[in-house]
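Bug report (template v2)

What were you trying to do?
Predict the complex of my protein with iron/sulfur cluster.

What happened?
Run completed; filing so the output is reviewed.

Input:
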Amino acid sequence: MKKLLIRTWGCQMNVYDSARMAEVLAPLGFAPTERAEEADMVILNTCHIREKATEKLFSELGRLRAVKEARAAAGQGMVLAVAGCVAQAEGEEIAARAPYVDIVFGPQTIHRLPEMVARASRAAGLVLETDFPEESKFDHLPEARAPQGVTAFLTVQEGCDKFCAFCVVPYTRGAETSRPAAAVLAEARALVAAGAREIALLGQNVNAYHGEGAGSLARLIAMLAEIPGLARIRYTTSHPRDMSDDLIAAHRDIPQLMPVLHLPVQSGSDRVLAAMNRGHSAADYLRLVEKLRAARPDIAITSDFIVGHPGEEEADHEATLRLVREVGFAGAYSFKYSPRPGTPAARLPRQVPEEVKEARLAELQALLSAQQLAFNRARIGQSFPVLVTGPGRHPGQIAGRSPWLQAVHARADAPPGAILTMTAIAATANSLTCILQDASTRPPERDAA
Ligand code: 5AD
Ligand code: SF4
């Protein structure tokens, strides 16, 4: 058996791609390892979305070079590959600065890995595959899925046509595409057969999904909800502009669709939203939140924020804080703006000084953390179904997830995949402590048929 190490940075779509890479390489005799020293192949699956991605990659590559040389001295080989969005954006630079790398390939060519490995083994120099091929990778990946645990990721949409001024995604993942419903359904069934109870549908712009045979994400979710044994469905990441009425209604009508929505707003200032080319205003966002809560009153809304976008002034920052107070988020990621090479915002005048970004980020994060804690505390005393994801930290405990994606710790004895009705008795910013309500109660979610 040969050993394969995959290290993954970035979004869940990278996590999905890494799982698929392991699956295409398994027939070549590669089994997973965590240790570089024993790896016959190492893949670094990279992210380019924010700062220092390239520098992080090169320092990691420096460490791996030493391991590769040590293995070579012992008569063992190591195929070293760089994948993902940094590879896509900076393939040439990687080739120039790290000539000991054997393979550089982008997110759209992962299905060609076996062939790339064969070419690399013939030692014909660097194998570079960063084109956007005609064929879809999904049509050339194995149909069966390896077990992914209780929660499985399933990419249904890729790429982005929105061109937010700050973002590299349209350049690294390419134009927006949706997979046909039949392919998604077949993969979902394979994942459920391999043990998944919850599926997270992924896409850079997942709610713009318009795949053949479904036409919309709402319709696709309705089709997935028919799969026996699939208890929970969620999707990420969504753009406010594509939050259609039928998708909002799905949150009311489809019990398997979890009451969670990650809906990045980025800023609460209309001026900054326009500079970001977001195509929506703060009021548009607030209206959406209102509609969503009318359809599903308990829905947990989370978001992404960027502070210090070029041209952002104190008044704009205040507008963001106002919007946050008005919405009340269940959680959020917030970042300092980081100029990405090749994006329009990187060329804008009036870049915001670093110390101003720091101060604004600290203020925003304090508010968002307080909201997250308040959201978690509001569960105390409530009962709800908990999906068991694995054993807990201590014997006799389980780890699980609430319908709102909160991590749950509880004393209980149940295998991963079980759904237990529990009551929350304590909350922190990051988790809930629950007790078993009544093991014999049937959960309100549809269970395995
Ligand atoms: N600088 C800082 N944050 C960014 N994001 C995307 N591009 C940038 C950038 N250039 C953030 C956005 C996005 C999340 C995935 O990363 O908030 O929603
Ligand atoms: Fe990072 Fe975006 Fe690529 Fe995901 S798609 S890995 S977030 S750059």
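What did the reviewer find?
The two ends are 39 Å apart (CA to CA). The chain has three domains: 2-129, 137-377, 383-438.
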